[in-house]
Structures
1.
Amino acid sequence: MILSRRTLIAGVAALPVAALAAPDYAILPVPLADGVWMIRGADGPIEPANGGAIANIAIIATPAGTVLIDCGPSVRYARALKAVAEKLTGMPVIRVYLTHLHPDHGLGAAAFDPAIVSALPGTIDALRAAGQGYADAMYRILNDWMRGTDVVLPGKPITTDAELFGGRSLKLLALSGHSGADLAILDERSGLLIGGDLVFHDPAPSTPTADLPRWRASLDRLRTLPHGGLVPGHGPFDAGGTASIAQTRDWLNWLDGALTQAVAEGLDMVEAGELPIPDHFATMTAARYELQRSVSHLYPVIEARLLPRIDMPD
């Protein structure tokens, strides 16, 4: 029997609300050091199967209260995160840092009082300009996972290079490259570095708002900063603290060189997206997917640099 569209809509409308709701997020903190936990995001792109929860989150217990570094893609995720974090530490959430503007890391800010949500001024400006567009796209991809999520701007711009929470000091590093404003955080008690999306570990880096020279410069600064283990924006914890930085930089170097050569050789964007990926990147998740996305993000910029209009001044 072939059902009409009207019959299908009527049938869906008659289903219990619980049957239409998305399942709950699985939020599983893993201890890394004294008072520091990591919640590992799902590998792969944002999709309904993972509810958009692909970014890593850090929880830090301080004498003054609980600190979250990033808060996930939706208000639903962030409310669950808050409950888990406060049960874990026995203290209320008093600060939420957003490492950058991308929605998988920060749309959950809607679950918190803006006065405790902190970000770099450049991130706040970018969210003001582009946040609604990101939110609209997330609703289209994730549907009910996003219910009730609005763009809420952080109410506490970061204007210092450190913040003290009852004796536990967090060093705040204002960097850029993955986006126009990228925050990395060093927990000075444990020596752990939270790199945000400046650092990817095994998943191939994404480049929707990237400036590759600035990104490489930021990685160089993180590499020389004394630290222990590293929480990347995506992928597993890097216990040594340097392998993930090196891997991210290696990918960016290859990507920049490969796309520059592809433009110079006259390849179109489809051909560039099919370039061979070096064998030592074979274990990286979504390498082909991210290469093809990067072509769409970076190719026009490289073409404009290498192939300027003849009537443009030097």
2.
Amino acid sequence: MHFGPESKVRNILFSNLVLQDVTGPISIDLYDRGRGNTPAPEPAQKGFFRNISFQGIRAHVVSEGRQFADMSFSQNYRPGETRQCIVLNAIGDVFLEDIALSDIRVTYGGGGTAEEAQREVPQVAGEYFEIGTPPAYGLYARNVRGLSLNNVRFDLEKPDLRPAVVLDHVTDASIGGLSAQGNAKAKSLLRFVETQDALVTASRILTPAAVFLEVAGAGSRGITIDGGDLSKAAAPVAFEGGARKEAVKVRP
């Protein structure tokens, strides 16, 4: 779903869905400019996208190049259509607000590379695949105010060197009961970029990881890790890009 400068969307619940062999499981973007980033007239009133919930979702995201036996023709995947994840993407000076995901379980094909884990997502709006391969295998969120994850699990069919979750310029986030597969060769399981006021509780690392949370950017602050089973991570937190150690509190 993508929405333009004058869109006004709120109070929607998506529940009890089974998504089988999809490429993009959940995708929302909001932008303050014309389609394809072309100039657009200033709207009389700025649009918004708020109070949207997803619950009771089960999904299987196809791996790259998968061909289905019940189709007589070859399936062609566009660039950015494979190795996708849940994408919450606002660009410009607008934000998605109060987005909640609860009781979500997604199995991904995996295969993401270290280069993809570090790529910068372009400032584009449109179909989910137009941003290219995201730097997270499970969830990528940019410009979100009020993000809640509760009882969310991400599994992989094959190894992936991207973090499970990347938060990019997110404020007021709560992640409770997240279970996700790590990779000892990946930089981290979670990555927060210029993220503020985030609480991470009762997380469970399903497979070994080098670092549980990597924090980037001097603007990151007010991040708390409270409890959970982080024993499969070699280190709980790492910092880069000007992030300060006092930005994060770790509670046993």
3.
Amino acid sequence: MDVIAASDTLPRRMRRHVVGIPVDVLGWSDALDSVSLWAQRNESRIVCVCDVNSIAHALRNPAHREAIASADMVTPDGAPVAWLLRREGHRDQGRISGPDLMLACCRRATEDGTPMLLYGSTPGTLLRLEQKLRATFPGINIVQSISPPFYTLSAEQDAAMVDRINASSARIIWVGLGCPKQEAWLRSHKDRIHAVMVGIGAAFDFHAGVVKRAPPWMQRLGLEWCYRILQDPRRLAKRYLVSNTIFIMACFGFIWSNRPAHDT
């Protein structure tokens, strides 16, 4: 894995290639401080959370790979991603998942009064999510919740949506459109939406109580995917079978190509 040059705005930034996909090596304080600072400065930034499914998409889809590579922060969401970073010598690297990142940032944003906006999912889920967040973080500043249509917006409709989001004065936009749709959306709106845009996958469903999250012990062991399959096998079994297989094959390929050379 190669170290990628640090960014001028984040002098401490370090990225490593996990089976060819760049992921940030960072702790919780760095992640929270960066999102908070960008929000205070009203900067247009992209934060992606990268799990096994996202890496599998990136290995097959150049557009998704570019979306991940161009992000301002890519957190190791999946436990296997964090394991690989630890294997490369970053012993303290833990998992920074979308649902956990959202709660931690909401706590910080509530203390700072930072305005936030929820974008994605269905109206019913957004209503429940907003109610849960307001109950968990009294005084949280959620300025708007938007459930976009499932079809692709026209250029005019998208421009109107951008104007609506910018007019809300939100400094952090939580985007729950699912992978890889949300990463494509994030990339296409960089420098158009004046806020930190964070793609957090299934976090809306988890925090709204629509989908039950795996117990902490399964999360620590990297078995959250197994728990989710048991909840919705018809929809998720094929997805996880494909993405896990691609990821495992990529890991074997990486280990083989980086095996120590032996004299003959």
4.
Amino acid sequence: MASYDDRDGKIWMDGALVDWREANVHVLTHALHYASSVFEGERCYNGKIFKGRQHSERLHFSASQLDFEIPWTVDQIEEAKYAMLAANGWTDAYVRAVAWRGAGEDMGVSSRRNPVRLAIAGWEWGNYYGDAKMKGAKLDIAKWKRPSPETAPSHAKAAGLYMICTMAKHAAEAKGCSDAMMFDYRGYIAEATGANIFFVKNGEVHTPLADCFLNGLTRQTVIGMLRDKQITVHERHIMPDELEGFEQCWLTGTAAEVTPVGQIGNYNFEVGALTRDIAESYERLVRA
């Protein structure tokens, strides 16, 4: 696979489709220094982006949480996504929209005079966790914790919030794991580095209450699917010592889709019937 900065194709950038290798920013871009950036990850299936509009709406929300406004409407962002896909000839692809404070008159913490930029790229991407999608991912337990909402805008999909995720995932991969599970600032189970987490016990589903981390669109979709199937879902605070009593586990996210988990630290889980059913049901839904 070619480097992400050296490929053929088109990227939508600030209102125009540009050649992939020309979609560049200046080294004094504010977001590069101060993380003033928000983004969305989306998947296009059979020519249709799943929950595309909700992603674009959340992009605007995330920007507002970082105190900037994207100068393109949700409708314009939606149009740009499909223009990018068409220019590259893709009907099945991952879509990445990113908005940031660019280079301008300010180069300190304050950046009110700098322009807000927007780019939409995409690429063809298979399973985020590789063959773990079938046999169950192995997760480490991260030393880094999701921050308090009083510390950071935890409900925004903001680039800066992923710094500890990258560090936790690198540490997990060094141990032969696919990812890491993170606790929140209070010590409750929170999520993986880029995906929400679900557990099964006695036929009921338990998932951490999304009160200090991103309430993922895939998470919301899966909760709705489970309730449609008359399966009880508990959104609640989950303590680490409860891991021993859970029978099944899976991750959800746009990139992860629904991925079963076979192990977290020293705890093992069955890739059971409910996990497989919800994964298959989600696959049917996004391709409907």
